[in-house]
Specification:
With 837 residues, the chain is mainly β. It has three domains: 141 residues, Phage tail protein beta-alpha-beta fold (3-Layer(bab) Sandwich), CATH 3.55.50; 120 residues, TonB-dependent receptor, plug domain (Ferric Hydroxamate Uptake Protein, Chain A, domain 1, Beta Complex); 544 residues, Maltoporin, Chain A, CATH 2.40.170.20. It contains eight helices and 45 strands. The protein is globular and about 85 Å long. The relative contact order is 0.10.
């Protein structure tokens, strides 16, 4: 057994063989050996570390080393850098490294490679290091004076990568994406910046299996379809690993405040509790950074959009134990619809305290003040997509200016706590409290079915629906590794809690405004009667979950299960006071098996389940049971060695049971005898294909239809009908080229196409008809220039131009009703000037 810190002979030879190839790199190493490594990984994405103040730093270089056993990873590192690395042989048998992609120093690459493990790195010279057993002291210097880099526990440095290699979505542990036996798509900060994304719809527009409805007047969270299933609550939206909340109207997502977006497709209740069968989206907000930086952005765009944003971060104390981040944004903007603002104030301060190398506490706060239109903007099909005479203009406002607005003020504060015990186990505790106040007056077409009347008029009514809400969400888990014979178990045990209190009243106007489509007169007074609804909803949820990720040689078996209890109480104060109690409980889980080939290919198969509580009762007064979802998925993921990219293919068969349908024996009531099935294929590829070139490509085939349904009072059944707004085919491609040489260095150009196939409206329950809404193809593009590449005095200054739907195609999405559609987003162009220092 060799002494730790000594260089194995085989590794010495490997380093010697590649020394000539690295002559220039070693020269830079000697020149920069005395430079201070100010901490951790570049970009600071997801960092929560405490790195020694004095660390040898060398010249940055390009790395593309996939996740693999330690010995193979160190060999690849030596071939890339020419460094000499020493480590004890037993470490090679127990440690699997993380992928390292991007430009960074060798010391930083070593940290990224070993992030999440207990190993320390001892820098023993300008181009040599030793890997220290977990039992060694942490941080500082050893007896010989060599610097020890602290253990790093991060989610993965995605700031400078287009394709993330790991994510906590799907396992609640930092697991390589290729080892998760379920489809996971990650949109990194680099991709968001490359495409100049400003809303969540655009952020996931190139992700297969997800359809975000481009609804200009959307109030609250975006309308979302995943694998054919519609998200009607916040069950599909997570922030920092916790459910976003319970009130779908109280906030929106600000992409500028995010580090990355993880899309987990398919049932996820086995870890997350009640959830949409199609999956969920987990958004990670920006975190404090070890390296000081400041960024200021100014933006101007279509529809008189004016926006200013700031993002500051760095250490607050000299020893780096307290870090901060402050992200802020102010937007004043109109939209393509008259009298419809898109104003926002977003403030997100964060502080991280690391009293020692094993403990970290991050406090995250957020405030949003948002104003949008309250008009529903549902367009009759006969006067929009299939118009033969009167066509409603895309800028026509179907509301009451100054009255029908949506204004939300929400405040949240929470924390993330993590402690690593000496035995290698980790305790994590996340909690967030949110309070929101919503001033919301909606506007809608008064007539039913919605239609244009008197040749070119619409009758518009309004409804006041103010709402306040308070919610608490929390998660506590412990994880660690144990061995049983040849098997290695990554265990996770957790407790999840959620509470919500929502109070809302609804009051309709007693009259409607007769608006001329082409010459509207909004000088009209509405009158209101008494509130027809005044309710309070209380929800309490508890969940216990466990997971075991078992590894044996190249096999990976993932097992997880969860049991949930949900109590829901509704108080109705309008009219005859009433109280309704309902509870739901369910066991859900997942089992998945994969095999990791040495070349980076991982085929897998999995079975997973989900549940969603359903409000209401049947004819006998019995509360409805939760709907349940079951999915079979098989696929393959491929992360080639030496390439910053990820390819994935998945086929799934997903069924939702206990869907409400007409009671054949009691008219006007429902029973849970319905069923919906979705089958499909998803392909995704993203990464860097050559120097400066990168791409994102996807394709999805989704066949979602009603498979069981009772006929209604008109004798019409929905069996065989396609789910509303779900196209059979979607595809997208984004190509980007960043000039790295010549006079054009600093210039980046990208363009993309998104194809969304035709889909159908909801079935007309009177006629049994569905109307086909044509598909569409959208063209996007972005160009940016880093002025610092041309003149060092302008370092940090960038200018970006971007646009979506550049051909200004008018397209539609099936709307809320069987004979309605929603207008898509027209051409949007913006310019962003940013300075970072």
């Amino acid at each position: 057994m060799m002494r730790r810190g000594m260089v194995p002979q085989a590794l010495q030879g490997a380093g010697q063989r590649d020394r000539n190839k690295q002559s220039w790199g070693r020269l830079a190493t000697l020149l920069l050996a005395s430079t201070i490594l100010a901490g951790g990984l570049p970009g600071g994405a997801g960092l929560s570390v405490a790195v020694a103040q004095q660390t040898a730093q060398t010249a940055p270089m390009r790395f593309a080393i996939p996740a693999q056993p330690l010995g193979a990873a160190i060999d690849a590192f030596i071939r890339t850098t020419g460094w000499q690395i020493g480590y004890a042989p037993q470490l090679a048998r127990t440690i699997t490294t993380r992928a390292v992609n991007g430009t960074m120093t060798p010391a930083e690459a070593l940290q990224a490679m070993l992030a999440g493990s207990a190993i320390r790195i001892r820098i023993t010279g300008p181009s040599s290091a030793a890997l220290v057993d977990p039992s060694e002291a942490a941080g500082g210097t050893d007896a010989s004076g060599a610097t020890l880099l602290d253990r790093v526990a991060v989610e993965g440095n995605t700031a400078n990568r287009l394709a993330a290699t790991s994510s906590s979505a799907g396992t609640k542990t930092d697991t390589p994406i290729r080892e998760v036996p379920q489809s996971v798509s990650v949109v990194t900060r680099k991709e968001l910046d490359q495409r100049q994304v400003t809303d969540l719809n655009d952020a996931v527009a190139y992700t297969p299996g997800v359809r975000m409805v481009d609804y200009t007047s959307n109030q609250g969270l975006p309308l979302l379809y995943m694998r054919g299933f519609f998200a009607e609550s916040q069950r599909s939206y997570y922030r920092d690993g916790l459910r976003s909340g319970y009130n779908p109207y109280d906030l929106t997502i600000e992409p500028y405040g995010l580090e990355q977006i993880s899309v987990l497709k398919g049932p996820a209740s086995g870890l997350y509790g009640d959830a949409l069968p199609g999956g969920l989206i987990d958004m990670r907000t920006k975190r404090p950074t070890e390296e000081a930086f400041r960024e200021v952005q100014l933006e101007y765009g279509s529809f008189d959009e004016k926006q200013a944003a700031v993002d500051f971060g760095g250490p607050l104390t000299q020893d780096g134990t307290v870090l901060y981040r402050f992200t802020g944004l102010k937007r004043d903007a109109d939209t393509q619809v008259d009298h419809s603002p898109n104003d926002a104030l977003y403030l997100a301060p964060a502080i991280t305290w690391t009293p020692d190398d094993a403990t970290s506490l991050t406090v995250l706060a957020q405030y949003q003040d948002l104003t949008r239109s309250g008009a529903e903007q549902s367009l009759p099909i006969a006067n929009s997509v299939y118009s033969t005479g009167v066509t409603i203009p895309s800028d026509f406002y179907m509301g009451a200016p100054g009255l029908s607005d949506w204004n939300s003020k929400s405040t949240s504060i929470g924390y993330e706590f993590e402690h690593q015990f000496d035995n290698g186990w980790t305790l994590r505790n996340n909690l967030r409290y949110t309070h929101s106040k919503l001033d919301f007056t909606s506007a809608f077409i008064w007539t039913w079915p919605i239609a244009v009347v008197d040749d070119h008029y619409v009758d518009i009514g309004v409804q006041k629906r103010p709402r306040t809400s308070d919610s608490v969400v929390a998660d506590l888990n412990v994880s660690g590794e144990v061995e049983t014979g040849p098997l290695t178990h990554e265990l996770l045990f957790g407790l999840n809690y959620g509470y919500s209190n929502i109070r809302e009243t609804r009051t309709n106007s007693t009259n409607a405004n007769h608006l001329d489509i082409y010459n509207p007169d909004y000088d009209f007074a509405y009158t209101f009667g008494g509130a027809w609804s005044d309710s309070k909803d209380l929800v309490s949820q508890y969940g216990l979950y466990a997971q075991d990720q078992v590894k044996w040689e190249n096999w990976i078996l993932t097992l997880n299960g969860r049991y949930d209890w949900a109590d829901m109480t509704t108080y109705q104060y309008a009219g005859t006071a009433s109280k309704t109690d309902q509870d739901a409980h369910a066991f859900t889980g997942r089992v998945g098996l994969g095999y990791s080939f040495d070349n980076g290919v991982v085929p897998y198969a999995s079975y997973s389940t989900s549940f969603e509580p359903v409000s209401g009762t049947d004819f006998g007064g019995n509360p409805f049971k939760p709907t349940t979802g079951t999915q079979y998925e098989v696929g393959v993921k491929y992360q080639p060695e030496g390439w910053n990219g990820l390819l994935s293919l998945a086929w799934y068969d997903l069924t939702q049971q206990n869907v409400t349908t007409s009671d054949p024996n009691n008219s006007g009531y429902s029973v849970q005898q319905g069923e919906v099935r979705s089958r499909g294929l998803e392909l995704e590829a993203k990464g860097e294909i050559a120097d400066g070139w990168s791409f994102v490509a996807s394709y999805a085939y989704t066949d979602a239809e009603v498979t069981k349904d009772n006929a209604n009072s008109s004798g019409i059944s929905q069996v065989g009908t396609q789910m509303k707004a779900v196209p059979y085919n979607t595809a997208s491609l984004w190509l980007n080229y960043a000039f790295e040489t010549s006079r054009l260095e600093g210039l980046s150009i990208g363009a993309g196409l998104r194809r969304v196939g035709s889909s159908y409206t909801a079935m007309d329950t009177g006629t049994g008809q569905q109307v086909k809404i044509p598909g569409y193809t959208l063209l996007d593009a972005a160009i940016s220039y880093d002025f610092g590449k041309a003149n060092p005095d302008w370092k940090g200054l960038t200018l970006a131009l971007s646009g979506t739907n550049l051909t200004d195609e008018r397209y539609f999405t099936p709307g809320f009703y069987s004979n309605s559609v929603l207008d898509g987003k027209r051409r949007t162009v913006k310019a962003t000037l940013a300075y970072r220092w």
